[in-house]
Amino acid sequence: MNLNLITLPIVHLNGTGETTLRREYADLYLALSKAEQAMNELTFHPRDYYPLGVEAFAQAVEERRELALSLTRLRNYIHRHVYALNKGKEPLPERESPTR
């Protein structure tokens, strides 16, 4: 997928509301950012792989690199949506806190 040529949603009368779109994409962006941070903070050490053989840790490193790249690409894709939906707009109103 070419991230320079992505299909972005359009806010219009028959579509999802602007605030809903903006908030949901912003929430997803934040969740993906947190997932990236959590993945980077995971303990990752060769001692946890050596019983699997000499090549196990190198394979795990490559798998993790590919998955981290995929996660970053997804976050960047969602960021493009957030940017497009928020361009020239006022900040979203604060969420109402649930009452009990």
The fraction of residues in strands falls at: under 5%
Structural category: mainly alpha
Number of strands: 0
Largest sheet: none
Features:
2 helices; 100 residues; elongated; mainly alpha
Q: What is the compact description of this entry?
A:
The chain has 100 residues and is mostly helical.
Structure overview:
This protein starts with 17 loop residues before the first helix and ends in a 14-residue tail after the last helix. The protein contains two helices and no strands. It has about 100 residues and is mainly α. The protein has a domain at about 20-85. Helix 1 packs antiparallel against helix 2 (about 55-85). The mean pLDDT is about 95.
SSE topology sketch:
Elements: H1 18-41, H2 56-86
Helix pairs in contact: 1-2
